[in-house]
Amino acid sequence: MIIVKNLVKSFDNQKVLDNINLKIEKGEITVIMGGSGCGKSTLLRHLIGLIRPDSGEILIAGEDITKMDEDSLDNLRKRFGMLYQSGALFNSMSVGENVALPLREHTKLDNRIIEIIVKMKLELVGLSGFEDLLPSQISGGMKKRVALARALALDPEVVFYDEPGAGLDPVSRAAIDKLIIDLSKKLNITSIVVTHEMKSAFSIADKIAMLHAGKIITYGTASEIKNSQNEVVQQFISGSPEGPLTQRRTGKEYLATLTGK
Amino acid sequence: MKNFCGYLGRSLNLLLRHLGSILSLFQQALYWIFIAPFRGKPINKKHFIGQLELIGVKSLPIVSFVSFFFGITLAMLTAYQLRIFQSEILVGALVGVSFSRELGPLLTAIVVAARVGAAMTAELGTMKVSEEIDALETMAIRPVRFLIAPRLLAILIMLPCLTIIANIVGILGGYLIAKFSLGLDTYYYFSQTFKAMEAKDLFTGLIKSFFFAGIIGMVGCYQGFIARRGAEGVGKATTTSVVTSIFLIIITDCFLNALFYFI
User: Fold this and answer.
1) What is the pLDDT, as a whole number, of residue A111?
2) Cross-chain CB nearest to B138 (options A82, A85, A101)
3) Reported ipTM
């Protein structure tokens, strides 16, 4: 479904993504895992065409999106859904209007039909009856679920999730995880989930790709990752403060940074 | 010296880059306003009407207030000077011409820049930093069409309307002084006013207000779109938006005056 080939991107001469290769199968849940600032959100933004890479290709359904013009990219995006970290609901619109927006913009459906679809999508995320509330009147977990309903409005083939569990209590997080699995199994949606929550990652993932310093260091099923010999992966899984991820600079280097020599 | 030249070069580079981006954004906005609707992609009507109300109707009280009192002040100021030549009767003409040609468009633009331009930047900036604009883009909804086009069109329509109202209210303010302080006859005051005012005064004033509307709308939206780094970034962008708008309005005003009356 999605193939990333030799993707490279730098910001201000710093390589954020360094030769990324990744293959995402249709209908699977692929988790992209990694510490803060490892480039996982940047990778996600490339996949939906918000950023163009310095070099490399991203093939979605056989088409290279890095060379597409805006119009073809728009056509492709109608087949995508994206759940942002903060939800990114439009605060001036009610919950129902938020979910209805993609339908109103991209279809010529009658208003009554749109209202029914909105109800169905909200039911799907367990929030029917909340149509008339404003985003400021609901909790963080509910906002994310509304955002998910909005992402699903056009019946997408692929859904991207940016830190779906961030800032949620354990129960809401588990509820979101379950939703991701259900959607993938029931509707055969291809899901790409960016997260650093190990528990969620292992419970939802068909495949996990671990990103570290702009490179994919491991890729495989959950059990393959668990048994990985890579020290970085092991430290990340165990959450230990000691290890290659947090390696201190040596005394000499530290002195050099301090004195500037 | 070398440092100074470097600073100057970098600032100029930055300025030109901003100017380039703003013009390209303007071009896109014009496309979505004037061309796309005929290709079956109209502007969101509900948003557009909301903006008309926000920019026009809700700015009416403050614009009227400012012009009214400025009309009074201008009449008092000129009456004091004209008294020396015993020609207080010219107060009406002076207020009328100054307002229609210069003060109406300029005062309205500055008030609207502070009220509406700032609100545009703050709103769009907040949307930018909370990923709402990215969300629009991933929903295949062009932010320029959805957010900028209705705002720009609304201000292009409403600013000239507000300017006409400001002219009328300003002239009424002047009339109050003429009537109750100078004791001039109502008919005489207005006949003097309209005799002095030419159609050209009114038209050039309105043309100016179109330019000012474009400046406020584009600077306001552009600054919102490039806002970064949370609440602090939005605050900064809002300040920059108002300062830049007012700066550009004054410069454009001077330039257009020269164009209309001196060349």
Assistant:
1) 81
2) A82
3) 0.76
